[in-house]
């Protein structure tokens, strides 16, 4: 039986949905609705599905498209990050306790302060679980560049989150 394009596309997408959704949520936190990014990406991916050379590269295919969509979004909108506090999306995971939800919120806010390439590398490696070699393909860069982005991104996150935690607890000396 010959599968239709839609059936073949869904067959590849379904096992990758959760990882792709996590990537989109983390990548656009505060910029746009992650569901819009997922929908826009899937429309483009379905349209360009014939260009996919290997079914093993499907998730990288989706990430590459979503990264381009985000770049185009920023070019068109000239968006300033976090223009309004109410633009930051809240998490709706009922299973997370309030402290974990706050920690996740601060992590997303800190991630949004990283350079795009660093943020993408951190999200792909730490949140989505991709290997460095897979990230090299997705970001179309060298292995050393990806490792450097991860190193600098982690250092910047530590700096941001350490500063944020001292602000929350009031430990900064205003002397």
Q: How would you sum up this structure, described in words?
A:
The chain is mainly α. The chain has 2 domains: 1-89, Rna Polymerase Sigma Factor, Chain: A, CATH 1.10.1740; 92-175, Orthogonal Bundle (Arc Repressor Mutant, subunit A), CATH 1.10.10. Helices cover 67% and strands 0% of the residues. It is globular, with a radius of gyration of 18 Å. Residues 79-91 have low confidence and may be disordered.
Structure characteristics:
175 residues, mainly alpha, Rna Polymerase Sigma Factor, Chain: A, Arc Repressor Mutant, subunit A, 2 domains, 8 helices
Query: Mean pLDDT across all residues, rounded?
Result: 80
What portion of residues is helical? 55-70%
Number of domains: 2
Gap between N and C termini, in Å?
Answer: 76 Å
The CATH class designation of the largest domain is: Mainly Alpha
Q: What composes the largest sheet?
A: none
What share of the residues does DSSP label as strand, in percent? under 5%
H/E element order = HHHHHHHH
- Please mark out the parts with pLDDT under 50 across 5 or more consecutive residues, or reply none: 79-91
Q: Count helical runs.
A: 8
> The CATH topology of the largest domain, please?
Rna Polymerase Sigma Factor, Chain: A
Number of strands: 0
Shape: globular
The appropriate CATH architecture of the largest domain is Orthogonal Bundle
Helix/strand structural class: mainly alpha
Q: Give the C-alpha Rg.
A: 18 Å
């Amino acid at each position: 039986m010959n599968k239709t394009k839609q059936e073949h596309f869904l067959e590849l997408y379904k096992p990758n949905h959760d990882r792709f959704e996590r990537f989109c949520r983390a990548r656009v936190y505060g910029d746009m609705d992650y569901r819009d990014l997922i929908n826009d990406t899937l429309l483009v991916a379905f349209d360009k599905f014939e260009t996919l050379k290997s079914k093993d590269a499907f998730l990288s295919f989706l990430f590459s498209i979503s990264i381009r969509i985000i770049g185009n979004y920023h070019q068109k909108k000239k968006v300033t990050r976090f223009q309004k506090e109410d633009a930051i999306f809240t998490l709706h995971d009922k299973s997370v306790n309030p402290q974990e939800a706050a920690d996740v919120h601060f992590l997303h806010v800190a991630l949004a302060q990283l350079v795009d390439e660093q943020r993408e590398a951190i999200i792909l490696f730490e949140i989505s679980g991709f290997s460095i070699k897979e990230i090299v393909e997705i970001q179309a860069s060298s292995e050393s560049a990806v490792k450097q982005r991860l190193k600098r991104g982690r250092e910047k996150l530590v700096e941001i989150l350490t500063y944020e935690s001292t602000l929350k607890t009031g430990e900064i000396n205003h002397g």
